[in-house]
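lol so apparently i was supposed to do this last week
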Amino acid sequence: MKRGAMPDLSDSGSRKLLGRLRDAMAEDSAGQERLDKITHLIATSMQTEVCSIYLFRDAETLELCATEGLKAEAVHQTRMRLGEGLVGRVAKNGRIVNSANAPQETGFRYMPETGEEKYSSFLGVPIQRLGEALGVLVVQSKEAREYSGDEVYALEIVAMVLAEMTELGAFVGEGAALSARHQQPVLFRGTQGQEGAAEGHVFLHEPRVVVTKPIADDPEIELKRLHDAVDQLRVSVDDLLSNASKTDKDQLQVLEAYRMFANSRGWLRRMEDDISNGLSAEAAVEKEQSVARARMAQVPDAYLRERLHDLDDLSNRLLRILTGQGTNTGAEMPDDPILVARNIGPGELLEYGRKLKGIVLEEGSVGSHAAIVARALAIPLIINAKGILTEALNGDHIMVDGDVAQVHLRPDDNIVAAFRDKIAMLAEAQTRYASIRDLPATARCGSTVSLCMNAGLMADLPSLAGSGAEGVGLFRTELQFLIRNTVPKRSELAALYATVLDAAGGKRVVFRTLDIGSDKVLPYMKPQDEPNPALGWRAIRVGLDKPGVLRMQLQALLRAANGRALTVMFPFIAQFEEYRAARAEMDKAIAREEKLGHVLPEKLEVGAMLETPSLAFAPRKFFEEVEFISIGGNDLKQFFFAADRENERVRRRYDTLNVSFLTFIENIVTRCNETETPVSFCGEDAGRPVEALCLAAVGLRTLSMRPASIGPVKHLLRRSNLDDVREVIEEARNRGDQSVRPAIMSWLRGQKI
Ligand code: PEP
Ligand code: MG
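anyway here it is w/ magnesium ion bound
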């Protein structure tokens, strides 16, 4: 690479340029004037004929916003699409293009209005901040030469500063292309965590760090700041490591990676170089973070991506140390907050509680504890909304459509109107459901289905009255264990269960004993290294093998009942013997309580959850002995079809209305009816109106679901004749249909329900 009569772009040269840029920024001038000044300064410092700045006009279009050297008339006229021409290529790939003979490059597009045909060499570097593309900075010259490594680096440093300035709104002013960043509407598609629609304003769980001073006054001071901050970071990572649970391998692995990065010479050296070239310490951290993010997007290997992710987290910690900006910047929570976060723990989410109108997570999973809490709170939740954190700012207008898993950030008027129509329709439906809240779910044929709700948190209790539920058909006791950091005490549990019974005011509450393992891992429980946790040591298997917690829980339940009626069921009973053993624990607990002189429940019912196909084939004696059965459709379906309920690839492959599955459910109901064993269904499908209708048609008379589903399910049941539905199912079965869904849907259309 030849440097020829190159300008002085040694460290001090680029520092000088940054110094001049800083002075230009400090002047009280309008956005366009600043941009013009900057292109002039860069062109002169680099002794190159052309310097241009292209910024995004919208997500797909770049616009020439300032130039030194190209024709002035082209400013705000010349536009290109993402990927178009060399500038578009830089923006699209986030990578520099350095060419001695630009017109010969593939993809070169000649823009006659700019007069750029005279210029042979071209260097374009992306203007990007933390993975977000903001524009492209270009220098060009007549002499056919490649720009040197030093020049490329210098221009990257300048681009970094420009990115920060763009972010700070330094170029905002008159002119369409100079509207502030983060003002355009953006649509995000994610995965549904909880349905429902909500409109509100963004509240960032952890607001991003704002770098207000990207250029260093004195590199020596900046270097010292960086070193002090890195030292502080290392100490905090060591502290984290010494306090971490030695058995939590995942956490240890992350912390080890943190430590490795915190001690990485390469990382530190790159940041030191950036500072020598004129950046402030925080801008240097952010520059390297941006590079890592760009790499993250391109690394196919999941493990490596995770490590880059760790580096990203660590950079954030370093930035917070340097800027003193904590995770809480004191931003005021809007009246209608929609929480935007990378991820969030269940405890934190509970703290926000029902204040939130919606939640959007950049990561997360359907089965995560946060998702469980969001469902309990009936707050629309979207997960995997990639890129939302780079785009959303505190206070942005946002609309969350949990039904189709879409997020509209800063929506335009058309979207706002359509979305508000949808919310109005939903509200109208809610009014309709409210009007039938106290009526029974009696179908046209005269059969009545008892509709109960699923619960697990204190936050669920207000729904008991509001939803019209006849009781709690499934109280997931593990949620109370999941949201804490330590095992709750017996007295705490007893008080909690008593509150639940008080709130129920005599309505039946079915407490399910601890259902942990598989996807529900307690933070304080030694993780089991199981190859296949869904088929592993979980639920009643843990309860029987290590009965301490089960015994404590049964005792807490008996005390909470304090003489009132009590209903308890055991999860994941796969064979008769497990039910007997669990029942024996209950009998022992009662004997103990009696001996201690505590009052016993006036009525006690003990049941089993049928969640594995094996139990459907248990001996008749089991059905005679068990006092009731609750079908856990979520697990039952995953084992029936051998399709992991957590695995997005296979989760939706098999329809609940598949003829085989419905027939299987019907057989269970028949067996229960033969022995007069009460049977209910409490999986998620009970809350889907069409599924609920079919479950009722195959004989189920008790369904337990999310409180918000009771209205829609009741509405449909009251308008249907279950005998007709049965007939439709029968016909589909006889025809050999795979699923009864098409037949049911077409029948429903015919009924105009
Ligand atoms: C089920 O498996 O259907 C069920 C209700 O239990 P959980 O979803 O808590 O596993
Ligand atoms: Mg289950």
